[in-house]
Write a structure and sequence with these properties.
Blueprint lengths: L3 H39 L1 H8 L5 H17 L1 H15 L1 H21 L3 H4 L2 H17 L2 H12 L4 H29 L2 H27 L6 H5 L8 H8 L1 H31 L5 H25 L5 H24 L5 H16 L2 H6 L4 H21 L1 H12 L4 H17 L2 H4 L2 H8 L1
Helix pairs in contact: 1-5, 1-7, 1-8, 1-9, 1-10, 2-3, 2-10, 3-7, 3-18, 3-19, 4-5, 4-7, 4-18, 5-7, 5-8, 5-10, 8-9, 8-18, 9-10, 9-14, 12-18, 13-14, 13-16, 13-18, 13-20, 14-16, 15-16, 15-20
């Protein structure tokens, strides 16, 4: 027989179950969608040969990374439009639209004929679909972060870290598939059609993500805000929160650089510059991503007890001091690839486990989606899309194999300085939770 206490506890248990369902579905959806975008970097070597043939392999890689960067140029526009829609009409609709568009673009990339078949039309179509990927991905991560911190503000640090953990898991799926394809197919087969399997597979798992998201409800905090919504949230961000956006860009910048190194630059660096085998580089990358996934989840959990800004500063300081020595050792073959990836992954956990919460904490609920989207996508354009291109150009111009380490140290310095302003401008999640 149920007691009065049992009856009273039922709504609370139902609400808690709903909260965790929202967190899990938002996080898993993001992992499937980030796979679609990052798989381009994983197979950059194969794409370079098919779409940008050249006598100098480094020139082909530069052209390929240029297209990789183009995919990020559409992200600010996507962030502005999707963020505004999310703050005006709700988070759920952005989730559903973005995953369908991303899935279609990813499948299309996997089906584009090579340059040898259709000439200049091949790289043109590649650019078009990369722009589409970037536009719709611009709302994915900001929406996930906004969704979960509003659903469970009392555990905002951990649940936002869970979103990033699932993103890393999506990347891990991409790199594991790369390892499987390289292990089971000949190099010629991977270059011809193996990489296409990865893109088409990503598009189909994106459709699975859409199906999962159809059961999501709107975040509770946004529903409470219906009578206080802002008609032009993006304009409000520019007029009332410009400093917060700059701080957010700098805080996210070191995350974008460290992830760009781990997911995109380091595998190509090891094979093209340091002359390691692709299989060895792929194995090391998987170990590094796994290390970062565990590391960031630990720091996200710790941040519910020790402020996130401290861990973010520590991670930035480690990269500032260790970036150049790390690449010198790697170029001189003084460190094994798998150890190098694991070190990068562990260091990346400091900032990856903290930045999502720090960004969300800079903006109030009625403009949070727009603020996070703008900050995150500007940081992505500046520090992720351009990082592989800038570093490869820097290595080519200077002839210095350790050039990536100098770049990483410079961005880490910017992040460290920005981190000093977090205490002054943060506290928005706590304030909105207390007034709810």
């Amino acid at each position: 027989m149920m007691t009065t206490a049992d009856v009273a506890a039922m709504p609370q248990q139902t609400s808690l179950k709903r909260n965790w369902k929202t967190v899990v579905l938002a996080s898993l959806g993001g992992s499937l969608e980030i796979y679609d975008f990052i798989i381009f970097g994983v197979f950059a070597h194969e794409i370079a040969k098919l779409f940008f043939p050249a006598s100098d392999p480094l020139v082909s890689m530069i052209k390929t990374f240029s297209v990789f960067a183009i995919g990020y140029l559409s992200r600010p526009l996507g962030g502005i439009m999707l963020g505004s829609l999310g703050d005006r009409y709700g988070r759920r609709i952005v989730f559903l639209v973005s995953i369908l568009a991303m899935s279609g673009s990813t499948i299309a990339i996997g089906l584009i004929p090579s340059y040898a078949t259709i000439g200049i039309l091949a790289p043109s179509l590649l650019v078009l679909f990369r722009l589409s990927q970037g536009f719709f991905l611009a709302g994915e991560l900001p929406c996930s972060i906004t969704y979960v911190v509003e659903e469970m503000p009392q555990r905002a640090s951990f649940v936002s870290g869970l979103v990033i953990f699932c993103l890393s898991s999506g990347v891990l799926v991409a790199t594991l598939l790369s390892l499987l394809l390289h292990a089971t197919l000949t190099p010629a087969a991977v270059a011809t059609y193996g990489w296409r399997i990865a893109f088409i597979f990503g598009g189909f798992i994106g459709l699975v993500s859409y199906w999962l998201r159809t059961s999501l409800e709107e975040s509770q905090e946004f529903q409470r805000l219906k009578s206080h919504k802002i008609k032009q949230p993006f304009r409000k961000i520019f007029t009332a929160y410009p400093t917060q956006v700059l701080v957010g860009v700098a805080v996210a910048g070191i995350v974008n650089v460290s992830n760009s190194v781990l997911f995109v630059l380091l595998p190509s660096y090891l094979t093209s510059v340091a002359h390691y085998s692709p299989t060895l580089a792929s194995e090391g990358q998987n170990a590094g991503i796994a290390a970062m996934s565990v590391s960031l989840l630990c720091f996200a959990w710790l941040c519910d007890r020790i402020p996130s800004r401290y861990w973010h500063r520590l991670g930035s300081a480690i990269m500032l001091l260790g970036g150049y020595p790390f690449y010198r050792a790697l170029a001189a073959h003084q460190i094994a690839p798998i150890h190098a990836f694991v070190l990068v992954g562990l260091a990346g956990g400091f900032v990856n486990g903290t930045y999502a919460y720090l960004l969300a904490d800079l903006f109030p609920t009625n403009v949070r989606f727009s603020g996070v989207a703008l900050s995150l996508n500007l940081a992505t354009v500046i520090f992720t899309g351009l990082t592989p291109l800038v570093v490869t150009q820097l290595m080519r111009a200077s002839g210095l194999a350790a050039s990536p380490g100098i770049y990483i140290a410079g961005v880490a310095c910017i992040a460290l300085l920005a981190g000093l302003a977090l205490k002054r401008f943060g506290g928005q999640i706590r304030d909105s939770h207390q007034t709810a």
